[in-house]
Input
Amino acid sequence: MTCRNILVNCSPVTKPDLKGVIKTAIAEVRLKKGESVDRAIKRLKKKLDKEGIMREIRMHRHYEKPSERRRRKAARAKARARG
Output
């Protein structure tokens, strides 16, 4: 069995790194020898979840007005302060 790559390119999600360079989020999982595709997909999902890529995609699904963003952030801060 050859080594295959499963690539997910999430091009709409861009984040500036510490130096201000904007990077596109790309998650890559390499199939190990004798590993099933289902297992590799499970590892890929864990990796996407850990890096927060899926959360970013969901957030950018619809346009959010700046006032709505401020209101949402204030509500989160208030909830964190409470408990």
About this structure: The CA atoms of residues 19 and 33 lie 37 Å apart. The two ends are 52 Å apart (CA to CA).
